[in-house]
Give the backbone structure.
Amino acid sequence: MTDVALSGLLPERATRVRELIADVPDFPSPGILFKDITPLLADAEGLADVVEAFTRLALADGVDVVAGMEARGFLFGAPVAHALGLGFLPLRKAGKLPPPTESVSYDLEYGSAAIELRSGTLTPGARVLIIDDVLATGGTAAAAAQLVEQCGGVVAGLAFLLELDALHGRERLTGRNVDTLLRVSTPSGG
Ligand code: AMP
């Protein structure tokens, strides 16, 4: 990993966050280098540092509500919302929420997926910060931004713990305000 961008953290604390994210080769399928955040979540200081860094981004973006993608976006999004005194919107995989929902479909390498938001939970005009753990190809994040806008929200920004540079996810989010806490230049996927 390179280019630690956990602005506001002491350098040794930023390095520690980086070291708490484990590389797991060939998971969940051959050729994928999975970024495992469970050691980071288990570490009180590491978790606090990441939540604090996301919270600073949200303050800079002027946010009314925080949204997070299922499932790992929930782990950071909800504590960030709480730290800011804001609400949290879960963006869930298809079929998990009771109707009525708003939905956006997007393409995966094989097949397609959809994410959903419970109708009526997003106040029209609200400025939304979308949070997830990893920006890979950007398909999930682009769909999340589209879903927020479909529901009448304004995408204030998208924030990720990790950006996998080699997959160019940022290109799917051109024109949007994208922040990542750590960038990874090694080839990876997922
Ligand atoms: P993408 O839509 O390709 O940007 O993929 C982003 C979603 O897939 C995020 O919700 C991540 O949790 C997950 N993901 C993608 N690639 C990885 C990876 N190498 N390690 C861990 N999670 C990943």
